[in-house]
Every structure is written in structure tokens, then in C-alpha cells.
Design brief:
Blueprint: H1 13-17, H2 21-34, H3 49-58, E1 75-79, H4 87-93, E2 98-103, H5 106-118, E3 124-128, E4 140-144, H6 151-158, E5 162-172, H7 176-189, E6 192-200, E7 209-216
Length: about 220
């Protein structure tokens, strides 16, 4: 793929990515150039890589708390990380947090490890496997996922990874309100409280995103 086919960087990108912008630019160029051939992004996604994917993830960065539930550095797990969206983007923008990328497909974790090395990200660990196979459990202040499953399928998988008092922070699509209704019966069973759904990026980016958050007791 030619570089000219990658979406030009939107003017708001530097504002959203802050000190991480140089790393994010390198990541975007590499993903836009090789992502389709590696099976990381679909056909034509490079043409909307910034607006649909990278900035969509960057909107989550300021939502991550600056300290974990015990007061130390915030630990984040990105489940089903794929190309590193949102986990790698979060790690590039927020050098003050520690990110674990959980991805079952080895061909994708090869890419993730390559990016971690290339971008010199000292705050990222890559785990090859399913969330259900990750040990120890209940170890993360924040657990996130993007474009993995509907909420009712995610909750049983993700909540065991959340430390007591930690939170889910899930990037969702336009069906989120329906998904909340469908998953409502699971909330009490999985000790989920303070559920909230918000739109991020309205008036700032071309494609705003929806964020579902909840506390796991």
C-alpha cells in the first residue's frame, strides 16, 4: 500500500495525542502501510485510519485515572487488542500508565511485540492468549476492549480481570444502549455498579465514539 492511500493526519490529532504524537504517527504509518496485508485492518481502513480508529482510541486516554485503586500507577488491560487499538495508543499517549495487551492470535501478538520494541514502549506487556487464560486474575485497575463482543458477552470475560474497585472502560458502537438493556441482568451477578454510557469527541473529531464505564466491586 502506498503511503498516499493512508488518511492524512487530522489537525486535532496533536491535541489529542499530546507528547505521544510522534510515536502515534509512526504507528499509524506502519499500520496503514502493512496492516491490511497482516490481517490487522480491513480493506480501505487505511483511508480512515486516523478518524475511525486512532483518534477513536485517543479519546479514551484522558478517561483513564492517573492512579490505581491502591494509589500506585494505573494498570490497564486491553482485551482482544488486535492491532493495538486501543491499548498501544493509550500507552503511547499516557506514559504514566502500565498497559497489558491480551490477544489470543499469535500473528497479532508478533505485530504487537514488534511495535512495542520499535516504539520503545517500556510501559507495555503483551500476553498471547485469551482473557480467560490470564493469571493472576483481578489484577487491573482498568479493563478495556474495542470491537470485540456485545456487552453481555464481554462482562463474564472481563470482570474477573478487574481489581476490586476498578473499572471497565469499553469503547462501543451506536448499539450501546441496547447492549446495556440486554446485559442488565448480569450486572448484579458480576458485582457491577455505577454503569454509565457517554459520547466522547462530539465537536472535536469527525467520528465521535461511545464509552461504557462501570465499577467492579
Amino acid at each position: 500500500m502506498k503511503h498516499s492511500e493512508i488518511e492524512p493526519e487530522p489537525s486535532v490529532a496533536e491535541q489529542l495525542c499530546g507528547a505521544g504524537i510522534d510515536r502515534v504517527r509512526r504507528f499509524a504509518l506502519d499500520l496503514g502501510t502493512r496492516g491490511e496485508s497482516l490481517g490487522l485492518i480491513g480493506p480501505d481502513e487505511a483511508r480512515r485510519l486516523w478518524s475511525r480508529h486512532i483518534l477513536n482510541c485517543a479519546l479514551l486516554a484522558p478517561e483513564i485515572p492517573s492512579a490505581g485503586v491502591t494509589g500506585g500507577r494505573t494498570s490497564v488491560a486491553d482485551v482482544g487488542s488486535g492491532a493495538g487499538l486501543p491499548g498501544l495508543v493509550l500507552a503511547m499517549i499516557r506514559s504514566d500508565i502500565d498497559v497489558t495487551l491480551i490477544e489470543p492470535l499469535e500473528r497479532r501478538t508478533r505485530w504487537l511485540n514488534e511495535q512495542v520494541a520499535s516504539l520503545a514502549l517500556s510501559n507495555v506487556v503483551v500476553f498471547t492468549g485469551r482473557a480467560e487464560d490470564f493469571a493472576p486474575r483481578r489484577s487491573f485497575d482498568v479493563v478495556t476492549a474495542r470491537a470485540v463482543k456485545a456487552l453481555k458477552g464481554l462482562i463474564p470475560i472481563l470482570t474477573p480481570l478487574v481489581a476490586a474497585g476498578g473499572q471497565l472502560a469499553l469503547l462501543k458502537g451506536q448499539r450501546i444502549e441496547e447492549e446495556i438493556v440486554e446485559a442488565a441482568r448480569l450486572f448484579a451477578h458480576h458485582n457491577i455498579t455505577a454503569t454509565e454510557s457517554r459520547v466522547l469527541g462530539e465537536g472535536t473529531v469527525e467520528e465521535p465514539t461511545r464509552l461504557f464505564t462501570a465499577i467492579v466491586e
